[in-house]
Amino acid sequence: MKKRIFSGAQPTGSLHIGNYLGALKNWVALQDEYEAFYCIVNLHAITLPQDPKTLRQKTLDLARIYLAAGVDPEKSTIFIQSDVPEHAELTWVLSCITRMGELERMTQFKDKGKENTERAGVGLFTYPVLMAADILLYQTDLVPVGQDQKQHLELTRDLAERFNRDFGETFKIPEPYIPKAGASIKSLQDPSKKMSKSDDNPNGSIFLLDDADAITKKIKRAVTDSGTDITFDESRPAITNLLTIYQLLTGKSREDCVEHFAGKGYGHFKAELAEAAVEFLRPFQERVNEYDDASLNTILKNGAEKASAVAAFTLDQVYKRTGIK
């Protein structure tokens, strides 16, 4: 039997090219080798205030983006988190074996709470437990994660091991899948930070649905380092980030990229990078519009049914082992 992978994204903000290169691209590649479950994690989204109508629309838009990126509903299970109530139910069970200190150490809670954690919602504090439930429900072998999510996966592994020790072997212990390149695409305006959906400066991110003019302007405005060589160099993070994006968009090797731009200036490089980004995103953007609401809802309904069958079996085992059933 194929091993199983699980991953998901929140339907908030706008997905950017870093999300594609660091996550969606890998999802597509992995769906042939693994049994894949890809979720729109809308329950995670409400840890921060959301407009209800906007959230619902972005949930459906994100499903379209999954499909346009190449996630195939014939190969992968695509579903909305809230359509499978076992996610919330397992979260409660796991929250009862999670320690306060473990959650207090989560760096994302501190970041999103913006040092005003006294006023933050409880859901923002406990959402790593929901993330653990998402993964463990499907007896997941592999979780594609970025560097910023490694801490949450470590908590997931700890909770699975703790439950197995206290109640009997129930959960698989998931392993991380972290791509060698593209795991953390940086902001075009501040290469010390990752490219982010929630960046206050929209020029830091190339969004998947940006038009050609917007993409070109953002790349032209991207910060660069001192010096003129276009090479991969950790001491020059801005140009390394731009060159990494170019490498991943074109599929060329690092050596070929460096050789291609040898002796050329930043202006020439940025023009080629902009062209590569526009051409890469054009067919993707055309595919986004191919799915009407009826066909999309059918795909999501079928996906939820497949996911529920697996999730219900896992939760039943959890309830039996804890004495709830």
Helix share bin? 40-55%
CATH superfamily of the largest domain, by name, is HUPs
Question: Main sheet: which strands, in order across?
Answer: 1-2-3
Domains (count): 2
What order do the helices and strands follow?
EHEHHEHHHHEHEHHHHH
Report the portion of residues in β strands.
5-15%
Q: Give the termini distance in whole angstroms.
A: 30 Å
CATH C-level class of the largest domain is: Alpha Beta
Query: What are the low-pLDDT stretches, counting only 5+ consecutive residues below 50?
Result: none
Number of helices, counting only DSSP H or I runs of 4 residues or more: 13
Supply the CATH architecture of the largest domain.
3-Layer(aba) Sandwich
Which outline best applies? Answer: globular
User: What is the tally of beta strands?
Assistant: 5
Structural class: mainly alpha
How would a textbook summarize the main sheet? 3 strands, parallel
CATH fold annotation of the largest domain: Rossmann fold
Question: What keyword list fits this structure?
Answer:
325 residues; mainly alpha; Rossmann fold; 2 domains; three-stranded parallel sheet; two-stranded parallel ribbon; 5 strands; globular
Notes on the structure:
This protein has helices at 17-30, 42-45, 52-69, 86-95, 100-104, 107-113, 122-136, 150-167, 212-220, 237-250, 254-260, 266-288, 293-322, and strands at 4-9, 35-40, 76-80, 142-144, 175-177. The strands form 2 sheets. The chain has a 3-stranded parallel beta sheet. With 325 residues, the chain is mainly alpha-helical. The protein has 2 domains: 4-178 and 292-322, HUPs (Rossmann fold), CATH 3.40.50; 202-287, Tyrosyl-Transfer RNA Synthetase, CATH 1.10.240. 54% of the residues lie in helices and 7% in strands. 38% of the residues are buried. The chain is built from 13 helices and 5 strands. Helix 8 (150-167) links the parallel strand 4 (142-144) and strand 5 (175-177).
